Amino acid sequence: MAIDFRLTARQRELQLQSRKFARDVLSPALEAETLPTAEERFAATKPAYEALIAAGFLRKCIPLSAGGESAGLIDTAIVVEELYSVNASATLTLIGTVLGLLPVLIGGTEQQRNRLLPRFLEQSAAPLAGFCATEPGGSANAGSPPPGEGVRTTATLRGDRWIIDGRKSWVSSATGWDRKGADLLSILCRTDSDAPPERGISILVVERPASGLVFERAIDAVGHRAHLLPEFNLRAVSVSRDNVLGSVGGGLALTGACFTGAAALVGIFAVALMRAAFEFTLGFARTERRGGIHPIIEHQAVGYALADAKIAIETTRCLCWRACQAVDVQSPAAQELAIEAKIHGSETAVRVLTDLMRVVGIESYDHALPLGRLLQDALALPLFGGGNIGVRRRQLHAMLKHPDYDPLTASCEAEV
Amino acid sequence: MAIDFRLTARQRELQLQSRKFARDVLSPALEAETLPTAEERFAATKPAYEALIAAGFLRKCIPLSAGGESAGLIDTAIVVEELYSVNASATLTLIGTVLGLLPVLIGGTEQQRNRLLPRFLEQSAAPLAGFCATEPGGSANAGSPPPGEGVRTTATLRGDRWIIDGRKSWVSSATGWDRKGADLLSILCRTDSDAPPERGISILVVERPASGLVFERAIDAVGHRAHLLPEFNLRAVSVSRDNVLGSVGGGLALTGACFTGAAALVGIFAVALMRAAFEFTLGFARTERRGGIHPIIEHQAVGYALADAKIAIETTRCLCWRACQAVDVQSPAAQELAIEAKIHGSETAVRVLTDLMRVVGIESYDHALPLGRLLQDALALPLFGGGNIGVRRRQLHAMLKHPDYDPLTASCEAEV
Amino acid sequence: MAIDFRLTARQRELQLQSRKFARDVLSPALEAETLPTAEERFAATKPAYEALIAAGFLRKCIPLSAGGESAGLIDTAIVVEELYSVNASATLTLIGTVLGLLPVLIGGTEQQRNRLLPRFLEQSAAPLAGFCATEPGGSANAGSPPPGEGVRTTATLRGDRWIIDGRKSWVSSATGWDRKGADLLSILCRTDSDAPPERGISILVVERPASGLVFERAIDAVGHRAHLLPEFNLRAVSVSRDNVLGSVGGGLALTGACFTGAAALVGIFAVALMRAAFEFTLGFARTERRGGIHPIIEHQAVGYALADAKIAIETTRCLCWRACQAVDVQSPAAQELAIEAKIHGSETAVRVLTDLMRVVGIESYDHALPLGRLLQDALALPLFGGGNIGVRRRQLHAMLKHPDYDPLTASCEAEV
Amino acid sequence: MAIDFRLTARQRELQLQSRKFARDVLSPALEAETLPTAEERFAATKPAYEALIAAGFLRKCIPLSAGGESAGLIDTAIVVEELYSVNASATLTLIGTVLGLLPVLIGGTEQQRNRLLPRFLEQSAAPLAGFCATEPGGSANAGSPPPGEGVRTTATLRGDRWIIDGRKSWVSSATGWDRKGADLLSILCRTDSDAPPERGISILVVERPASGLVFERAIDAVGHRAHLLPEFNLRAVSVSRDNVLGSVGGGLALTGACFTGAAALVGIFAVALMRAAFEFTLGFARTERRGGIHPIIEHQAVGYALADAKIAIETTRCLCWRACQAVDVQSPAAQELAIEAKIHGSETAVRVLTDLMRVVGIESYDHALPLGRLLQDALALPLFGGGNIGVRRRQLHAMLKHPDYDPLTASCEAEV
Asked: Are A293 and B134 an interchain contact pair (Cβ–Cβ within 8 Å)?
């Protein structure tokens, strides 16, 4: 327990194993991105996703305490960097499923976990889960008091059943491989319309098959072209009274807890994309002469741009690991650091990728090369998991305003 | 003749007329971008392009002295800002044609102009022209001495015919509506392999129909999705000895002259995209509440981001107009200013568009909204017309190193 | 009346004349900056200031309509760029005096102008004026309603005299050459404590000699080291009832009008500092080898950094001229453009100057070279005349929120 | 040995002890900065420096293996962050001494260490050391082959004495408290004018008293106002043949090794300055109303700017710790990471400090507040210890060009 940046032997093995899988399985699966419609592209990634499951990568992202193999978020970060740097769409399907499970993992009772998790711990089939927070019309102010709409989806108790009505969008894989729904959906909804948001919103779990889930359209997203981001209706979807995750009315707090870890992983997504772009561009610069005498890496402008990109990569990875460990050890600075990793990583990635496109030149504007795709993927990072302007900086702002805020907390967690 | 920023009555009319045309014709033509292949998308813009021709917009970009209606580059800038802000793909087809004609306009003899220009001055059909400079393998070092490849396409004089062999890519509309070639192609090629680049490279003009022009593929570009950027072969394309534009061996210098004006217009492209994105985002911010109580423009972070975008727009437009006028009056600072407009505008647009996406939030990642498209279009601007890192800053660097360089030249062209 | 960037013959002469004066008189006067205390440094600039007056530079900044020689703000911009690029401190003393006179020029009656202006129109002595807006405790919210303090200085009518009490700070030259006060002070003060800010605040003019003006200290500013920025008391300063400039209660509106033109000039200050730094660094890069074989301008990183600085200079100057003309022709976009010139110019200058210091290297950290001084001067620009974060962007934000705001207004003032 | 960011109990104690010392001793010593000349200011810090020595802070920066108390560079980083955030000038005097000793610590023989180090290990007096690398005319190209000058100072062997002639500048504390020289100077000089730089340059150690060391002037630096940066002559300074540190001719390599660790510490300097500025600005924003109703931290623009500053601090600290550990464990990525910490930290600090000045507003331009001083200190960081443009990125560029460069080396040092 001292400041250290060295992987354990186990972590190193995990890294190499993930890297190999990504190269062997996820790289060829990029082919899916060339199909014409979003749903076709998503469907074409199913074999790769099945391979991810079969190789145990979902298990590796579920904590040991819940029957999985993850020793903590740093381990997940190591795996995710390798996978996402090769295929963002398929990896996001995996991580979207982990996010969908988080309310169960964090807020579920033992009984709920025992009932809901097994299909996700097996190394077979293509199980999907989704965290249904965002709604058409926007959810940047999910916690708004009236007259703000906040969470619009409602759940009404009728006898011992919750009846859920509303619309959701931007939920990874939510409508599943067949438009009929993921295996598990964690749904943020208003369970008490008279209570203030911090007591009137809950997370209900919906298991497949569920009637009333109506697919509307697949979003034609700028990037993550082979990932499914549906817009869909919940029409009188009925679940048992016991399907509340965490406490009734505690939905906003549980959502916050789930998104903290997710934020740190968005930072790692950024590292992964920058790294892929850097490796490509470095190779290009070392070999391409563009009509001139020397490989273009000989030009100072090229070398310096690559140097700046590398600085961004190392800086971001350090911060993300920092945030992941803070989550793992439940540091009081965990939320702050996770948000910082998210903001810094996501905005840095967009900048670095546009810079690297300029190093490569016009060729980078052709999808025959990977940079355009990587940038289109990266553009999501400042926006999803809580947009940087609308949500994430606002959360930091709220912390800073708090009279008890100590700016040095994040600089030190001493050994006790 | 004094510092002034006011449009003449004629310019104002030109502006309003272009704005109306863009709204009525070019806006619906965006529909073309949803088709699955690049060639289908391009083909679908043909009616809009025909309407552009019929409304005289190509004539408006050809100088009065050559039979057109353009009083100068500032007029063109005013028109282009209106058109490009609504439909970048179709407008680029128009401007690509103007660029293809520039070697004729700048370097052609009267006889050549009389022969080549008429079909472009008529307000009918869908005439295309292209400036064929870029080649597979890159042309950032087109002027490289050996052993650099520089310009690889060759033209060999056999009797009174030039026989052209080589490959070109990234040339707007070059292979025409039917893969058989644009109406006119200005082709940069090596006419003397023993001479140094500044004396051994020429521009030859190829008129349709020409045998030997072989379409290879349409580039799957990141943006300008309904614009055609082909890769193609020139296999023993034969043209008359008289088809040299400008002097034999003077191709690099003539190319430079053509691309100066083009650089200033790339700056205007940037203005156009930022403006479109700003107007959309302003409207979004004034009306959308995203679940909260107030329209999001009430948030300081939103208002400030919009303010910064507006600053970028006004700043860039001023610089571009400055550059355009310098070109029009043949100021000694014209090349410097045009390059500055290109670099500043293009990089600013990418930054502003990514910022505005963050204002809108995750919704902006959906192609149902325009911001993703606008950004994908903007990503081209730092790369084409001479990449900012590889070519444009290098040109400025060369000027700055010159012992006669006076940094105040650009700050003043006094009336004589 | 068409878009044009060429100086008239008269403007060119004005430019060259200002340049010569700056080199001959203001450059040697920089020596003042080496003295130990702020007041000594200010005092040492008096001969240079007298020379400015004698050469008619104050007259050149006062409109023709008021007996001066300025044909408009663009003329002033041309003069100021030349002077400020050589000696920011002394030039700010001049412009601070112009600012102090603006309430008279804009809001004064003919009688007031006839009485107050003559001493500033003569080409003799060293007349000073100051606009007293800022107060200890900050004035970013001068227009705040209660319980915000807003403007704290009060003026109470006793008979036919206003009795002024309060404190002011950051007012250029306010306490004059001898701590006894400038020749004229325009003082923003609360004339009706019960009225809302937009009706209860006025500008009163105080002429020298005035009893009750008590010097407290000279601010030890980061830059403008030979310019006087005092903190001082107004203790029962008594002026005639007629000394209100503009209408009683109209002080905030008149202040806004005065600061619009000033904002455009802050942009020109930025141009001047960048230009001085660029010229120095270009010369350094062309001649210095820093132990190597070639002058450092041969390095691409140096040349590109210089190119980017030059782009910033030209861009900013265009925008500032644009804003100045908008003020001159009373365009509806004048305020927006002036603020944009202020924000863009000031922040760009700080960035460019730090970049240029890196080009020069460690040597630039020595005050034997000019870059440190220029940067220390530039640091004021985002802060004074209304801080960019606290005031200026907030003003833009307010405009953007207004339902009548048309984003295209600033892009066109057509000839009528 | 796993990724971890938690301080050991010992490190936490070291941190708190340093923090207390900084507050009690170094904070009052800032008073020295108000004196008129550089030498007076430096002299006035002597009591604080003696207190640093007496409290063992120099010992804490010398490795255990050499008789000191430092367990590694991370420990030094923890100490330095606390001290430098309070008083950059005095702390730089300490770290400059450590840098001066590094050639002895890294390259010295046991005999040399036994002879030279004891006076620096005692907790008494005010011992100074300096690393004399930089020379008037610049040393960005110290390793240049002819005709570049490279290292100009020469050492000629006459009998068993080296006779050193040349000039040096920018060497912290080099001329000591009395102009007669620091206790120990490590001098980079050319020992073989015919050999190539990598074999002809050595580091010689000069001990006090030494005749021939002639003070020329104290540089009037932009910041670190109470730190001594002299320019001085070495006129036939004579030292024993045994005074070579490391191998004869190995001076450039030894210099590189010394500056690697120093680079990581420059990153920590950046953290320290940002942290000090952040704490001040946070306090200001929480309490100041600037005439308005609420403390300015209520404004989103203020809160977001603070949030961005905090992100920069945490990000930079992580990277610096990463680099320090890489140095400690002699990772193959150590040099890369140290340079990255230096570049990223230094440039980030300048940006963050200018941003925070804007949050505070015009008040920050007054040296009565700390931000101006902190920024003036920060301006050095991109420039010293190898300027970022001239030296540091060039080193990264050279690494990236190397055919064996593996971009993933820096991402992982697995446990063996």
From this structure: no
